[in-house]
Design goal:
The chain contains 6 helices and 15 strands. The protein has 287 residues and is an alpha+beta fold. The strands form 3 sheets. Strands 1, 2, 3, 4, 5, 6 and 7 form a 7-stranded mixed beta sheet that branches. A 6-stranded mixed beta sheet has the order 11-10-15-14-13-12. Strands 8-9 form a two-stranded antiparallel sheet.
Length: 287
Amino acid sequence: MNHPLQDATRIANSLKQFAYQWYCKFDRGTDVDALLPYLPEGELEFVYPQATLKTLPELLTYARASFRAIQRSAHCLHELFVFPIGQPGTYELLCPHEYQAQLENGDYVTMQFIGRMHVRLGEGNSHDPSGRLPKIHGYKVLMTQPPTPSSADRIDHERHGKFLINEAKAFVHEWFKFIDLGDADALMSMVSEGPLNINILGTSIDNAAALKAFLIMQRDMQSYSSHQPMAVQVARGENGSFQVTFVLHFEGAIGTQPPMFLSNFTRWTLVPSDNGLKLAGYTLDLL
């Protein structure tokens, strides 16, 4: 049975995953068509320092011009915050970040922004008829400091091999979204096919089959679970891997027992594959 807190943290993790992946689209050099499934075909409002846009055609024209003006970019997201607002299924995301860009003339600049995003869930459009994807009805970006000169290294720092730092951060929230959904099959699609180095509270696991059995056992024991990762940090590892650390707060219960409240410091190793990043290492220390 789902619990209100479990539903709330699952949605928060889903939206944080979405936000990291949204900014990745721009840093990978997306085109306008890739944005359309996430935009409403009716009312919207996007507010930038240079323009306020209130229709989809206006936004798309502005986006095309912006894409031409930026050769390369990197969004360094400091932390993401999610709040329910207004009617059910409507959320605000606050996204403080540092923006690195190489301009059309070749210059590099750094800018400090706070992005505020208003999204609705369960709303379809012609590019996403089922409403599976969030729709961004409002976006405002506030520049908190004047632009300063930068360098190519600052953009390169947000990449490792063929993956972006933000993709590793999105992975964290996607994992715990599926944990709170109890979807063992989806979780296993995120796990490396090679040897694993996992130790969770004294349980050592070295292969995917054993990990799946462990995850199912944990799911079936719990009447509800809520996982809130925070302070996610990503460092480059060997052979294109990422070393990911974060603080995790857990609330849950076994059967009819009183709720448990636990916090831990988690260390992961994510390894590259042809199908995205995969989990290969997992340890934690209780706080």
